[in-house]
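Task: sequence design from structure.
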């Protein structure tokens, strides 16, 4: 048998180290070639490290959350053949399997103790009321209308209340007994009284993508003096157009939401405000103004917030923009986005989708200098031509890097986006 040491390879673009996110094997496992061993995270993406050999895992190097340098040992195997290291030259493993504990000495035999004199048995209650009813699923509990009303007022699910009356009928006394015992209620969601004290602290180690998100947010707030601006937009005409386009779309065309129209408005307005479609290298003191519009789409995933990028949005119509948003967001949610899919954005859109909200103050995606956030579209009364009418209104939130973008320019920029969205035909006019 030989020893094989798998070392962290160069994962691209001069990366010197990566964070260990999650192990998929443990010491003693027999793994196959190309089996996933561990997930590591670089500055841009999570990468799966697969086994180059088949063998038995005898050592793991590094805990989740620790950094591993390129070329450092990750996993040591026992393999058939010679392996890739000489006996005795392998690095000392950081995590050895626990040694079996020495067997405890047998206790000395003791003389049998005299049995206590028998005592009179305790009187047992004639009936024992169960803590919870055991009705079959779908069986309706029997109770009077008054008992049902009291149960609703107290937030009690009668399904779980044991009844002592004929055929299990629940009385007021049964309900009182159940509540006094701290039984499950509808309000408490199955955990006793809704006013019961709760104790305990859960410690969650911040590692992997969650740590990267925290670091980037902290860096953005520390570096960038944010300037927030919110304006309201009448989306009635655009919503009418959107509904019509979705109803008449061709096979293969995606369903449109607000994002493709907002993206189209951005690419029409940004040429007049090149300082907004930019990235600021504040270490070098250089603002890079981009002609291409690469729009980051803030996407909520199971692993946290990720920003995939729609490249060259200026060359896409609303249908193509919707398709590309769906593609890159899907890759991000499936944890399959490549580094190129997650880098190079020049401005970002962030949306809470159906949650919407009234207004937000989004954090800029450093090193960009601006971020745009549409909020919920809500029917609201507004005054038009001296009359109160109901219109579909949306607040558009935005944040800007005040070192690069002046407040006046930011407000003017958003108001031009507003004019395009309120008169959607202009989105498609050159």
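Answer:
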């Amino acid at each position: 048998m030989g020893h094989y040491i798998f070392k962290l390879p160069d994962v691209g673009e001069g990366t010197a180290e990566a964070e260990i996110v999650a192990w998929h094997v443990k010491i003693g496992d027999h793994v196959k070639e190309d089996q996933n061993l561990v997930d590591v995270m670089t500055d841009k993406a999570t990468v799966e490290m697969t086994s180059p050999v088949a063998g038995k895992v005898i050592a793991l190097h590094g805990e989740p959350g620790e950094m591993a340098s390129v070329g450092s040992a990750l996993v040591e195997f026992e393999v058939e053949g010679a392996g890739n290291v000489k006996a005795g030259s392998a690095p000392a493993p950081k995590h050895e399997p626990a040694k079996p504990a020495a067997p405890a000495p047998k206790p000395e035999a003791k003389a049998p103790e005299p049995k206590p004199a028998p005592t009179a048995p305790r009187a047992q209650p004639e009936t024992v009321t169960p803590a919870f009813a055991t009705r079959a699923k779908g069986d309706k509990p029997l109770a009077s209308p008054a008992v049902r009303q009291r149960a609703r007022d107290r937030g009690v699910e009668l399904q779980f209340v044991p009844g002592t009356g004929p055929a299990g009928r629940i009385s007021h006394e049964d309900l009182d007994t159940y509540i006094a015992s701290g039984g499950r209620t509808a309000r408490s969601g199955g955990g006793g009284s809704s006013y019961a004290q709760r104790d305990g602290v859960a410690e969650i180690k911040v590692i992997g993508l969650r740590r990267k998100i925290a670091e980037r947010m902290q860096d953005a707030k520390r570096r960038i003096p944010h300037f927030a601006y919110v304006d309201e937009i009448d989306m009635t005409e655009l919503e009418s157009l959107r509904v019509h386009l979705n109803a008449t779309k061709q096979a293969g065309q995606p369903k449109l939401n607000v994002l493709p129209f907002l993206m189209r408005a951005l690419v029409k307005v940004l040429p007049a405000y090149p300082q907004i479609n930019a990235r600021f290298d504040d270490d070098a003191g250089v603002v890079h103004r981009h002609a291409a519009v690469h729009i980051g789409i803030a996407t909520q995933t199971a692993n946290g917030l990720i920003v995939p990028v729609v490249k060259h949005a200026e060359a896409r119509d609303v249908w193509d923009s919707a398709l590309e948003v769906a593609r890159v967001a899907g890759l991000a949610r499936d944890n399959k986005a490549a580094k190129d899919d997650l880098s190079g954005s020049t401005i970002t859109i962030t949306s809470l989708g159906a949650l919407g909200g009234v207004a937000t103050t989004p954090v800029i995606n450093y090193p960009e200098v601006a971020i745009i956030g549409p909020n919920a579209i809500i029917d609201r009364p507004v005054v038009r031509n001296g009359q109160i009418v109901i219109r579909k209104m949306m607040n558009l939130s935005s944040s800007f890097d005040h070192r690069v973008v002046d407040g006046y320019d930011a407000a003017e920029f958003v108001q031009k986006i507003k004019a395009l969205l309120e008169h959607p035909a202009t989105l498609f006019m050159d």
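Residues 77 and 182 are 54 Å apart (CA to CA).
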